[in-house]
Amino acid sequence: MAFIIADRLTKTFPGETRPAVDQVSFEIKKGEFVVLLGPSGCGKTTLLKMINRLYEPTEGRLLIDGVDARSMPATELRRRIGYVIQQTGLFPHLRIEQNIAVVPQLLKWDRARIEARIDELLDLVELPRAYRKRYPRQLSGGEQQRVGLARALAADPSLMLMDEPFGALDAITRARLQDELLRIQQRLHKTILFVTHDVDEALRLADRLLIMRAGHIVQFDTPLAVLAAPADDFVRDLLSTDDVLRRLSLLTVADALADNGAGKRLAENDAQETLQPGDTLREALIRVLRAGGQALPVVANGQNVGEISPDTIASVLTRTTHALSD
Ligand SMILES: Nc1ncnc2c1ncn2[C@@H]1O[C@H](COP(=O)(O)OP(=O)(O)OP(=O)(O)O)[C@@H](O)[C@H]1O
């Protein structure tokens, strides 16, 4: 059985005639990373807030792990769901350790267990344990967002709701936190619903994209499937800008090497720059172009394992374009 089942969920705010979320139905499997994508005002946040009952649905039904979300008090439901928002929601007057411990304390964990959990979480989100005694204002935006993530994970919820958590961060910090989140997800297998209106972020993170427009779901599928066959012109427009680069950001240097004789040992090459198998082809393209269009060696565990040239990238792109339009 699916982990989350939404059945005709609807929210009409008081005094409004048009629902913000209109008869939305979907199923999400345990451990899936689902990204809600769509333009401003399409109902992403409203949908997310119906899942942890910050908003009560006007109509429809929601099952989480087989249990009707209305069958328990909203506060209890919320303690079982991690929630991360753009403004972090950290309590400014509480130290980092106190912020992280909020839910475990509500759940009346004993002191030793809470202390151990704070250390474990700081390690997980790669913040120094010395930050325990600081206040949120003494941390950078990216660090505060890591604390927000640690706090949401504190009581080990199986479901995480994340509403534009990286929206206010600069591009580099944002990319790092996206990597961290993927790493944490691979380790902890949480079910994640993540709201963004950044297409690149959505393509990078999602197992499946839930694309919304004006309170409705217009498509719910894997990133490659959506790129390959957008449901309509709206989806095509939403995803088509820089389409080629986006496609390349879904593929890695290792994918391209697999196509071009992986394992081929190369003669020593005096290029300064090297690529790694896990780099995206988008990064590889940028660096190959920066190197004047010269092929760059790919290095894994200190060994040369192949090279990436503009031709390699072009051939992968042609191949995927054909595959995508088949
Ligand atoms: N508390 C509220 N009262 C009345 N209308 C609301 C309320 N919250 C949201 N809305 C309306 O519901 C619609 C959906 O809003 P929502 O915040 O869910 O959109 P969103 O897709 O998350 O947008 P954004 O990407 O800008 O955050 C909008 O038209 C908004 O004005």
From TrEMBL:
EC number: 7.6.2.9
Record-level Gene Ontology MF annotations: ABC-type quaternary ammonium compound transporting activity; ATP binding; ATP hydrolysis activity
InterPro entries named among the record's database cross-references: AAA+_ATPase, ABC_transporter-like_ATP-bd, ABC_transporter-like_CS, P-loop_NTPase
Protein name per UniProt: ABC-type quaternary amine transporter
Alphabetical keyword list: ATP-binding, Nucleotide-binding, Transport
One Pfam family, short name: ABC_tran
PROSITE patterns: ABC_TRANSPORTER_1, ABC_TRANSPORTER_2
Metal-binding in keyword set: no
Similarity comment: Belongs to the ABC transporter superfamily.
Enzyme class: translocase
SUPFAM superfamilies: P-loop containing nucleoside triphosphate hydrolases (SSF52540)
Residue intervals of the ABC transporter domain: 4-239
